[in-house]
Amino acid sequence: MEKKSAQREQILQEARRLFSQKGYHGTKIRDIANARGILSGSLYSHISSKEDLLFEIASDGAEAFVTAIQSVANSSMTPTEKVRAGLAAHIRVISNHLDVSRVFLHEWHALSDERRDIIQQKRDEYEMYWKDILESGVQAGEFVISDPKFARLLILSVANWVYNWYQPDGELTPEDIADRFANVILFGLRHSE
Amino acid sequence: MEKKSAQREQILQEARRLFSQKGYHGTKIRDIANARGILSGSLYSHISSKEDLLFEIASDGAEAFVTAIQSVANSSMTPTEKVRAGLAAHIRVISNHLDVSRVFLHEWHALSDERRDIIQQKRDEYEMYWKDILESGVQAGEFVISDPKFARLLILSVANWVYNWYQPDGELTPEDIADRFANVILFGLRHSE
DNA sequence: ATATAACAAGCAAGCGCTTGCATAATCGTT
DNA sequence: AACGATTATGCAAGCGCTTGCTTGTTATAT
């Protein structure tokens, strides 16, 4: 009564949409059933609880972000290039999986304590890759950073906040957006390139 | 049966705490009553609906941010100084009114359409002040910005995201935090300080 | 004497989820 | 190809509880 099935996948899709749009607590199990055209009880042939849906979506989000940054971190780019590519990868995940990203970045608080901890671990893992990128940039002499923690925090803030304003029908590609942000981050307002 | 009264203010305080902590839909009217040591029905001697509480808190947040940026915008500082002071003002609002800020920046989505529009207008007003600061910086020759919209978006992203990680018992003052961010924003990773 | 703010009780609606049953698709065995 | 047996998926009904909020009444403070 679980895992892969076309119906289950479509239920997940509606859950993503609704959790992203109205929040976890704001979405009722009947809303999801309704969107699939079945009764709420029938959902439970495919899922075992509402919270399981949230956890599965949040986990998918976590994995998407970690996978994206890994391929950048493991590449042979210079730190400067990695900042550009990492930003682009992050924003690409958001643009390609907007609902999942919103749930992962916004609704994960509604999880139970243990499950929230699991997601938190993934977040920490993700941030660690950025820490490495920035540190290697300092060691290579490319970056002159007085406080590395705040440089990382700035990058992650900008990258995460994208889910609040990104419009899928906008003109700019994720790479365009990343480049514009990277220009400010790398050169600053007073010496922008 | 409304407006100022010690009890009403304390109800608002609990609502701020709970909305901030568990979200609007995650907070039940009985939770608030319980925190005040009264029954849920007794709340309605002081408020007229749960959503009114949310709207009042969100409106207070909006006003706090707008007021803070106004005093910076109307000052005689240089644009560079205004960026530092504006960031500090923003972060000061968050640190001094953490719950209100979280509700204003995170939970306002739960409002009805009309009331969400009212809050959105306040957000737009706030952003306009930043737009002016950046534009005057460009005209004064202090900033070299290729895409002003993204410079503004970057600043607001960093400033807003603070509510996600700020710890009141941390060592750094809002001004410390603002300075560290401003250093990156003004000079970039490649030419910091 | 009047106004205020609390309680006790509860309403109608909604909540996540379970149960018992019907229909149909899928299967291994002839 | 035909068979009964198994499994998957939905509906109908509803359970026990919670939701935001209302009502009528009482205690207290001015």
UniProtKB/TrEMBL annotation, chains A, B:
Top-level taxon of the source organism: Bacteria
Keywords from the UniProt entry: DNA-binding, Repressor, Transcription, Transcription regulation
Pfam families in UniProt: TetR_C_24 (PF17932), TetR_N (PF00440)
PROSITE patterns per the UniProt record, alphabetical: HTH_TETR_2
Coiled-coil annotated residue ranges, if any: none
InterPro entries: Homeodomain-like_sf, HTH-type_TetR-like_transc_reg, HTH_TetR, KstR2_TetR_C, Tet_transcr_reg_TetR-rel_C_sf
KW DNA-binding (keyword) present: yes
One term of GO molecular function: DNA-binding transcription factor activity
PANTHER family xref list: HTH-TYPE TRANSCRIPTIONAL REGULATOR RUTR, HTH-TYPE TRANSCRIPTIONAL REPRESSOR KSTR2
Name used for this protein in its record: TetR/AcrR family transcriptional regulator
Native source species: Alicyclobacillus acidoterrestris (strain ATCC 49025 / DSM 3922 / CIP 106132 / NCIMB 13137 / GD3B)
